[in-house]
Amino acid sequence: MARILLIEDDRELGKLLLGILERAGHEVRLAENGVRGLVALRENPPDLVVLDLGLPDLTGDEILGRIRASQDLPILVLTATRDLERKVHLLREGADDYLEKPFHPEELLARIEALLRRHAAGKQLAVGALVLDLEAGRARLGEAEVALSPRELAIAALLARRPGRVYSKEEILNAVWEEAAPRSNALEVHLAKLRAKLGEIGAGGYLRTVRGRGYALLEPRE
Ligand code: CA
User: Fold this and answer.
1) 46, 3 in Cβ contact below 8 A?
2) With b meaning 16 or more CB within 10 Å and e meaning fewer, what string describes 154-166?
3) CA of 48 to the centre of ligand 1 (A)
4) CA 12, CA 220: separation in Å to the nearest integer?
5) For every residue of 173-222, which 3-state class applies, written as one string?
6) Which strand (E) or helix (H) includes residue 41?
7) How remote is the CA of residue 63 from the centroid of ligand 1, in Å?
8) For residue 10, how far is its CA from the centre of ligand 1 (angstroms)?
9) With contact defined as beta carbons under 8 Å apart, do 158 and 147 qualify?
């Protein structure tokens, strides 16, 4: 179940889509113009927005820009255009997907669900049974969880994106410290803390030190 904000001024289409999405188990708010859509977005943040580009008050681009300025959520745009350049522009401006009118409502539902899955997956990284929740800043193994500092999370995420790949200290420093890399042993300190925290949830064995080469995250063998 997701909370969906549907911004659509065509009443018949709006009601039709509302019914289909609700029957699929989603909680839907229908806004009939752009201003109401932006108010609903602020007062009751949804998990996903379906945005009709042809609204009576604000342009779709304005709304897209305002949503993107404040929120990271999937946006599916409904458009009447068959113009390729326009579609490319919309995707660049932050739409995650689009559907041309007229469309089959079942296709809208399928695309919404694919977007929600993709969005949820993008917030988590898994190495075997160890899960990093990038949004919550936590590492999880089974039922056990521990909070990571932003730096610890960044190091763990770098290693987790390619499990088993050994990263040298220099590679980690370059990837994780945007400002000039620290001269002291800051990296070792963060790695030691990360190892201790993973140890707290029984995942200490995931962080490997490869002597003389660097560090990797890998599921330990039994
Ligand atoms: Ca319209």
Assistant:
1) yes
2) bbbbbbbeebeee
3) 19
4) 56
5) HHHHCCCCCCCCCHHHHHHHHHHHHHHHCCCHHHEEEECCCEEEECCCCC
6) helix 34-43
7) 14
8) 5
9) no
- Match 């932050």 to its residue by tokens: 94
Q: Which residue has the tokens 């999370």?
A: 153
Place of tokens 């752009």: 34
**Structure tokens of 49?**
């927005």
Read off the tokens for 6: 């549907």
Q: Rounded to an integer, what distance in angstroms lies between the CA atom of residue 189 and that of residue 19? A: 55
Locate 28 and state its tokens. Answer: 């839907």
Q: What is the pLDDT of residue 122?
A: 78
Q: Output the CA 57–ligand 1 centroid distance in Å.
A: 10
Q: How far apart, in whole angstroms, are the C-alpha atoms of residue 95 and residue 144?
A: 36
Among 33-37, 154-158, 180-184, which stretch is predicted with the lowest mean pLDDT? 180-184
Work out the average pLDDT over 121-135: 88
With contact defined as beta carbons under 8 Å apart, do 116 and 74 qualify? yes
Contact 33, 55 (CB under 8 A): yes
Are 145 and 201 in contact by the 8 Å Cβ rule? The answer is yes
Q: What is the pLDDT of residues 86-98, one digit of tens each?
A: 778 888 888 899 8
**What pTM was computed for the model?**
0.64
Whether pLDDT at 81 is above 80: no
